[in-house]
Specification:
alpha+beta; Porin; 2 domains; 3 helices
Length: about 250
Amino acid sequence: MKILSTSFRIVFIFGFALFMSSTKVFSQATPKDFKNSIKFNVSNTLLYDNSLQFSYERMIKENQSINVFAGYQEFPLIKVDVKNVDFDQSSGRKGYSFGADYRFYLGSVNKYKGPRGVYLAPFTSFFQFETDRNLNYTNPDTQVRSSTNLNAKLNLMNVGGELGYQFVLWNRVVIDCVLFGPSLTHYKYNLKLDGKIDGLDENETLQKIIEAMKDKFPQLGDLSHDNDVEKKGVQSITAIGFRYNVSIGYRF
């Protein structure tokens, strides 16, 4: 037992000395100046279904970079309460996004040069979502059940500015946080029923769907406020939006 204890002490001391020496070597080494970063948007996976969005950042000047992103995501299914109407759970969904921002890392504030630290950036982005679901209506008078396809399209065009902070760990790993990103956002929402169903109030049904979307995503704002939904459910409005996200990536 005494021999094991002595051996453990020797191994511990040797390991500690090796750790300290290696730390000193790494601390004296000059970190490489990597100009490229590729990142995965983590926060988008919480907002949308089947989301895969990646971005690429390239330093083009000291403390200045361009960051571009593109990806695929599906809009979550919305539960809608319409009398005598139910929707199939299965659906066809798709969506894509792309955009860019030009970053200015604040040399007067940051201890290190970009892409580490606080940054300001103008940005623009575009999102499009499309969903197809079967709408089933039971006529309360005849009990006849009819079905039709409901197609929904949502486009969002954003132009704005953002404040963010990017962490750099071990000179390779980045955690990019857009903390505040107000924008001028143009929303266009298009609802369309492929066929007419006797007894179904299309305008009321489309209005209910839009209201359900607004309840789940308040950022859609006044999409249908003080406006009657047109027969095909087309609504368009420009309002204030916000951008915020968290991405994790790798420098090279």
